Amino acid sequence: xxxxxxxxxxxxxxxxxxxxxxxxxxxxxxxxxxxxxxxxxxxxxxxxxxxxxxxxxxxxxxxxxxxxxxxxxxxxxxxxxxxxxxxxxxxxxxxxxxxxxxxxxxxxxxxxxxxxxxxxxxxxxxxxxxxxxxxxxxxxxxxxxxxxxxxxxxxxxxxxxxxxxxxxxxxxxxxxxxxxxxxxxxxxxxxxxxxxxxxxxxxxxxxxxxxxx
Length: 213
Prior knowledge:
By secondary structure, this protein is an alpha/beta fold. The protein is built from seven helices and eight strands, in the order E-H-E-H-E-E-E-H-E-H-E-H-E-H-H.
């Protein structure tokens, strides 16, 4: 009698303590296989170091990787609490294509009804983007920016073939710049959305499981 191979794990990476708290306090039921929520620390270098270290663990060597957390929206009309599903992530080293974008959009719309979901390129930065720099990045075709997603996915695919994706919650936007996360309505709204999206991540993972060798 043949035995079904164990499913590849899911690694969900975020940078900030408040993002980690949102994900740890979300609904963890419905996961198909082991799930690790990793706090990488802020910035692309921290994200890269953390991914290289954790994916060196044989138990996670084939993990699907999803980068998440908060981001700055670049497109006019975006609002705090909107969702961004990356079609690709970009940084100075190039772009990393994302897998299962359409499925993620479908599942997010089902999981958090009433929220707007944007799709397009998600660009990386090594600092918080403000003012004119936001419009400059939007002119490149990117719809949102954060400091860790591009480095996370770049490091993940360098470590081995695996499905990768990035889903971010807009915490500030051109018309809604955030002063301090968690102290304004936009930050609270983004926290609640991030806490609610785990079922969509699990469904993405279920559809793209990689069998262990």
